[in-house]
TrEMBL record:
InterPro entries membership: ABC1_dom, Kinase-like_dom_sf, Prot_kinase_dom, Tyr_kinase_AS
SUPFAM superfamilies assigned to the protein according to its UniProt record, in alphabetical order: Protein kinase-like (PK-like) (SSF56112)
Source lineage: Eukaryota, Sar, Alveolata, Apicomplexa, Aconoidasida
Family recorded in the similarity comment: Belongs to the protein kinase superfamily. BUD32 family.
Origin species: Plasmodium yoelii yoelii
Keyword tRNA processing: yes
Keyword annotations of the record: ATP-binding, Kinase, Nucleotide-binding, Transferase, tRNA processing
Catalytic activity, as annotated: L-seryl-[protein] + ATP = O-phospho-L-seryl-[protein] + ADP + H(+); L-threonyl-[protein] + ATP = O-phospho-L-threonyl-[protein] + ADP + H(+)
Protein name, as recorded: non-specific serine/threonine protein kinase
Superkingdom of the organism of origin: Eukaryota
Pfam families reported in the protein's UniProt record: ABC1
Recorded GO CC terms: cytosol; EKC/KEOPS complex; nucleus
């Protein structure tokens, strides 16, 4: 998989190419790549209908197995957490709210990690988060001002299963435990505003 920043119809875009994996049988690889393309299209539309912020999909080249998405101006949550020194509690809260909305639509993301979440219009300067619309510190005290864009739906699927939803959050918590241990509060159960019966299942994994 490769991401290239390009211009399309006069706008900045990201070209996402799903390349063939030569270690896989050709027919199996073709089916997997078609499924990934189909998932990206299907769940970009589905999440947009759930009022989840997702990149706009401009164009799909089914022959090349590539997609052309809106370029999302901002930093990934992964990069933000690795750069800042002061804990920002509203970031994980909004992540939890977003995942709950996704699951309420019976969508399983499949790879819900901090690398697939982008804080729109953000940039890092001297370990602080700034808004590139006004070059002022990003307003994080008001949770309604947070613009979180979700990307990468190649592994997404529909499911009402509690277990599938639990695994989705487990993937996030495991990534945080592995890569962002400098913020211990991120591993507390009340950090994420995701108040469902799934919490007990998540804690079982730990």
């Amino acid at each position: 998989m490769l991401y290239l920043q390009i211009l399309i119809i006069g706008k900045e875009a990201i070209k996402k190419v799903i390349y063939r994996k030569y270690y896989r049988h050709k027919k199996i690889d073709s089916k997997i790549r078609k499924l990934r393309i189909s998932n990206e299209i299907k769940f970009t539309k589905k999440l947009a209908s759930l009022n989840i912020d997702v990149p706009y999909l401009y164009f799909v080249d089914t022959k090349e197995k590539s997609l052309y998405f809106e370029y999302v101006n901002g930093c990934t949550i992964n990069n933000i957490l690795k750069s800042i020194t002061q804990y920002q509690p509203n970031i994980p809260k909004f992540i939890g709210i977003t995942l709950a909305k996704i699951h309420n639509g019976n969508v399983i993301h499949g790879d819900f990690t901090t690398s697939n979440l982008i804080l729109r219009y953000s940039y890092i300067n001297e370990n602080e988060i700034f808004n590139n619309l006004n070059n002022a510190p990003y307003e994080l005290n008001d949770i309604t001002e947070i613009k979180l864009c979700v990307i990468d739906f190649g592994l997404s699927f529909l499911s009402a299963s509690v277990e599938d939803k639990a695994v989705d959050l487990f993937v996030l918590l495991k990534a945080i435990k592995s890569f962002h241990s400098e913020f211990p509060k991120l591993l507390e159960t009340d950090t994420f505003l995701y108040h469902t019966k799934l919490i007990n299942i998540y804690m079982f994994f730990f």
